[in-house]
Amino acid sequence: MSEHRIRLAGPWRFRMSGQSGLERMERLPLAGSGVSGAGKTRLIRGFHAPSRLSGASQLRLAFVGRGRFVVHLNGEVLSLEAERRGNLLGGERLSERYCRIPISLLKSFNEVQFEVAVEPSEDWSVEGVWLVISESAGQPTAGGES
Hints:
The protein is mainly β. It has no helices and twelve strands. The strands form two sheets. Strands 1, 4, 6, 9, 10 and 12 form a six-stranded antiparallel sheet that branches. Strands 3-2-5-11-7-8 form a six-stranded antiparallel sheet, with no helix packed on it.
């Protein structure tokens, strides 16, 4: 099975709801602390659907970071599928986590959203995010950076 990764580097919309209502454009990596009260921190990025997907294509969203997140694609919650340890960041080992993306959720233009789900005293970070396309042997893969 072949695998192709498309890095979703940025720009990401960094949005804090609540009293501040702050929104700004950022690139990864991003980090912060949990928000107290009813406020929420979200990282949002749009991307075009990859071309040339076959019936054998499997899509996943892979990300490296620290903390808990609720991950949405086009308004639908993606469930955490797997976790693989091994990425080092400043001496700290971070996990690469995966969410399966049902191809039926894809549109021509898509929006992925990470909602920070940590307590106010907890730190979080998103170091990198990739769209991962897996194909059975002999099938073409999509190309390009989005």
